[in-house]
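worker-03 picked up job from queue 'complexes'. Input manifest follows; two sequence lines, order preserved.
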Amino acid sequence: MRAVRLSVVTAAAAAAALAAVTGCTEKGGSGSGDGAISVTATDDRCEVSKKEFPAGHIELDIENKGSKVTEVYVLFPDDRIVTERENIGPGTKQKVTAEVKAGDYTIACKPGMKGDGIRQAVKATGGKTAKRDPRLDAAVAAYRKYAQEQADTTLPLAKTFAEAVKSGDLEAAKKAYAPSRIGWERTEPVAESFGDIDPKVDVRADGLEAGQEFTGWHRLEKSLWEDKKITAEDKTLADQLITDLTDWQKRVGKAEITPTSMANGAKELLDEVATGKVTGEEERYSHTDLVDFKANVEGAEQSYELLEPVAKENDAALVTELDKRFAALNTLLDKYRADKNSYDFTSYDKVGEADRKQLSDAVNALAEPLSKLAAAVVK
Amino acid sequence: MTEIPEKTEGGTSRRALIAWGGAGLALGAAAAGGAVAMTRGSEDVQTVAAEAGGAIAFHGANQAGIATPVQDRLHFAAFDLATDDRAEFVQMLKDWTAAARRMTAGQAVGEGAYGGLAEAPPDDTGEALGLKPSRLTLTIGFGPGLFEKLGMADRRPDALVDLPQFSGDNLDRNRSGGDVCVQACSDDPQVAVHAVRNLARIGFGKVSVRWSQLGFGKTSSTTPEAQTPRNLLGFKDGTRNIAGTETARLKKFVWVDGTDLDDNSAWMEGGSYLVARRIRMHIEPWDRTSLQEQEDIFGRDKGEGAPVGKAKERDEPFLKAMLPDAHVRLAHPDSNHGATLLRRGYSFTDGTDGLGRLEAGLFFLAYQRDVRKGFIPVQRNLATDALNEYIQHVGSAVFAVPPGVRDKDDWWGRALFSEPSQSSEPSKSSQSSEPSKSSQSSQSSKGA
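worker-03 finished. Artifact:
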């Protein structure tokens, strides 16, 4: 439910954090001191002053000597963005900084801000290449598999929902709505890392940017519960939802996942609960917030369980605490469903203020120690 | 309750009388504002510290933030216990103490607000970086519910009574009660808010914030001042509060004495009891009240603050000259068998309410040796207070405030959570009623 721009920033930040994991980022690093990398962009060239530089803090001094507005990217080999600067006008200069670990990168200038850009291969050298605990590699692999499974199982459920909408069956659509979201909610930070999918499928009415079309689950939620009718447009939107989720299913396996991003993703899931679900904002028409709530917690717990063996070695007390807090929150959530194997939760509009406070307290009690998981995994 | 102003109780009467200025005013303060007291000596030191934005010593026989010269700003928070595990709560108290020790010295919590592991959130939230200690004091109290919830009801002091319903009370339970409280006072509001925020963060899972209140202007003083602070009704009140240097009055009215206690409550020696009341003022009707009526209601003149028939604010009031329902008259210690409170209240304004009225009033804070001989009789006596037409008590809480943290190895509440001074019945020992569990689990809350 974030805007695209935000997600891009998040990705860049994640990349920076990733670099930091390798230990090659020295605090207050020199960067600018030992010579920034000059990038001279014109309408048909993208010249860089150095093609090799030490890993760590880097600074690009960009000058646009062309006639078009340009943008400059630092990219990973798979075109994920390390950092970027947009809207660099002709004749202007900009600086951009990043933390990079040793490895191959591409610097791309995009005159006219279109296309793949004019590219220069560069290399960051030195530092320590990440030598990761093999258990963490296994954790990442297992989590990647989990994320893929969630997408794979979501698609049929989403199709059931979409079909109900398309056939104009209001009740069937309502029934299929919340289950179609569980897999997405469990792995939302991964989905959000793509930037462009989340705003299409999971945006809320209050999260729309100027000019952004209201599409996806929540748009249909509004039709079903608030407007209580399915329009022709809704049927088109149901198809669009499947298209977008299929895109997610295809790309989820390629997401950049690290032990740190898993740990922080777990914490972000709790943030989602704390800011959207506990308040009842997420599912304001259907009041199925507790389904999302549970799915967020399950996703966080999955990341945690995979990282737990390593975390336990570094911070046993943290693991004890997290076990206890997850158990307490799950026990509390179970009070809101008759069958522990079903996702048939109490409608959130029936959950009173005192109970919401209790849920909020339990979320805080878990999220605070969970915010320390990443450090426990990488230290 | 038109009591005799000149009652005497031996040698103390003189003091009590003076105290009245304080106590009577004390309540005066309740409705309104602060007091002023006199003193010197350490006073000057404090003043210097204040000017320098300096630090108030955290360690001492009594907690700071009671007799300490009143700071300009307040953030007060009441917490509910979120655990019934005593060991876990004790660990949190130790963590809180360590954080409080640092924050009151102007230092960041734990490893600080930056420079740590990039993957971990910083221990300190950072908004007080670069700010002076600003005379921050952090004062902790334990509410009645704590003793039940932690299975140590036998250690609840008799003096920690549940407050009765008073005439005119319209209490919002969401702004009342609490198992633990923290009073953060500072000359810089951001320093006070930072302190409560960081303690709340450390407390997640062990305690959760039940309610909190910001106060923007002191209405009482525990030091002599050129100007007595005015309350939001525009009056000086609480002219003669107990001063931080008045050792004898503090001992008599504020600090819990060993002679008040039995073995199970001996942990309170050097502590005090705190009553917190959120008193909403009906500002707009008050502003439409004639000057004469306003002055009659208080029993003081508005400009100088002098009691009826007197010339100066600090002139001894002649209660019989006031109307029978005048606030000062009813609140005066002489009308209350000498009952005297140390007040530390703050004006608050939480913006406006849904009707466009100023959501404002007095957040009344009063410390005393025994609530049964302090706030309760005085508040009962105020049932006929003319001021009641313009105020309403909407929040209420009472806390046992333990003695001070003595040194770097000590922690808030240690005496309470340690073995009771071996009483004749060991079975009453708090330790026996519930086994402690995960004592180390909360360590992680301190951060990497």
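worker-03 released lock.
Chain A is about 50% helix and 15% strand.
The interface with chain B takes residues 17, 20-21, 25, 27, 260, 263-264, 315, 317-318, 320-321, 324-325, 357, 360-361, 364-369, 371-372, 374-379 of chain A (CB under 8 Å).
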